[in-house]
Amino acid sequence: MSEAALQVRGLSCSINGVAILRNISFSVAAGSYVSIVGPNGAGKTTLLKCLNRILNGTADEVQIEGKALADYAQAELAKVMGYVPQGGTDQVPFLAYEFVMMGRYPHLSPFTSPTATDHAAVLQALETAGAADLAGRQCATLSGGERQKILVAAALAQEAGIFLLDEPTTFLDPHHQDDVLRLLTRLNKDCGATIVSVTHDINAAVLSSDDVIALRDGQVVFQGPPEALTSGTVLADLFDQEFHFVEHPVNGKRLIVPLAVR
After folding, report:
1. What is the CB-side half-sphere exposure of residue 176 using CA atoms within 13 A?
2. Contact status, residue 41 vs residue 53, Cβ threshold 8 Å
3. Which among 29, 86, 89, 196 could bridge 1 via Cys, Cβ 3.0 to 4.6 Å?
4. pLDDT tens, 40-56?
5. Quick one: which H or E segment has residue 127?
6. Neighbour tally for 32: CB within 10 Å
7. What pTM, to 2 d.p., does this model score?
8. CA–CA separation, 133 vs 160, rounded Å?
9. What is the torsion angle, in degrees rounded to the nearest 10, for the CA atoms of residue 142, residue 146, residue 150 and residue 156?
10. Domain 4-257, what fold?
11. Tens of pLDDT, residues 245-255
12. Backbone phi and psi for residue 4, each to the nearest 5 degrees, phi listed first
């Protein structure tokens, strides 16, 4: 995993005159699972949107798979990097299958219908995401966990090797959180996908990640293995509060537990 899937140097971004990201630099190894953590307002979502060019930042250098981000046409970028945003598909007036087909847009011609190859890619994406049984459902009828699987399937249909995910388990119950995290781990370990996931779940970051990046006030304040995140005062300094830790009963990793309130 020595080759860099993402290489960022000196990235900054302001929105309405307010600096959100300040001179950020980091790299993500190809085939790695990286979690991005940090307090609310740290710039995590803004970072993903800059990498996917939803927002325009300024940088000394941003490279995606060794090529400058500025040199990618948008359709070409979508073949390399998929983006799963925060939120759902509850207001989308399409069947799940139709929504996932939209993920094929970098491969589709605007003047022709989807080919057999496109339909096969959509079916494979739904199958990989564990959502084949949802294909004929209206997006508005799906639960939160089901919608998240459809969003991941749409990104898979792009046939990209890098996935940017913004809070993929937000508002999901423990069962569906586990489903989504297992799916992402499977994509990473079995399919070789590079996963970059924003999360507020520190324990999920520790258990799933090869590497963790922590943002605070728009700056990278930590990058390293998850074991280092829960060592020393890293988390206390990041969130301005103390944490209690326990060892995972199976793998021995150091996890956080809630502070006692009574």
Report:
1. 16
2. no
3. 29
4. 999 999 999 999 999 99
5. helix 116-128
6. 19
7. 0.92
8. 23
9. -170
10. Rossmann fold (3.40.50)
11. 999 999 999 99
12. -85, 125
